[in-house]
Amino acid sequence: MITPSVVIAMVIAYLLGSVPTSVWVGKWFFNLDIRTHGSGNAGATNTIRVLGLKAGIPVLLFDVFKAWLAVHISTYLSNPEFSQNQEVIYWIVVGGLAVLGHVYPVFAGFRGGKGVATLVGVVIALYPASFLVILFFFILMMILTRIVSVSSISSSVVFPFIAIFIFGENRLPLVVLAVIIPAFVIYTHRENIKRLLNGTEKKFDFGKNRINK
After folding, report:
1. CB atoms near residue 32 (< 10 Å)
2. How many whole angstroms separate alpha carbon 131 and alpha carbon 207?
3. By the 8 A CB rule, do 28 and 34 touch?
4. What is the pLDDT of residues 56-112, one digit of tens each?
5. Residue 63: how many other CB atoms lie within 10 Å
């Protein structure tokens, strides 16, 4: 049963996800709309490319944190009559609403980022052990390729194998989510995949294309 507290948690999750960190940082501190520079994406990677690490790292951390916070708030605004499976599904829905808010933020004209950082926040909340392995894999791929999209996509594809076969996740809702995550990441990176196929996807360079205040 959906109780008022559950509805409140869902609304909070979407609003937290809708905080357009990169857009606000760009406007408040650099007087620019990050969506009109670089790749045009309102996310941490483009923020680092355009504005540098001092702006991009806080954006990245907050985008991860807001989804993690949304899931944890839901544990305090739950329905005590939920079964274990219902509770897990509820956490997934709340996390999904945070990601949805990031992709379609009400506070930024519904023009947001790809949602990968907020998805990472959900993964940290629901699969903490698996996340550590995936983080290592992502860093390794970044060192080898210096292409964020390749690192993100490959990490998402590996993720369900790590969660299910290495850490033994057997709760059906979390197994299904683990399988869905790669599809979501691949879909949101469809333009990157096109650029990869035609050889125009840029490698990540911390030292170029930065706009200073």
Report:
1. 16
2. 28
3. no
4. 999 999 999 999 999 999 999 999 999 999 999 999 999 999 999 999 999 999 999
5. 29
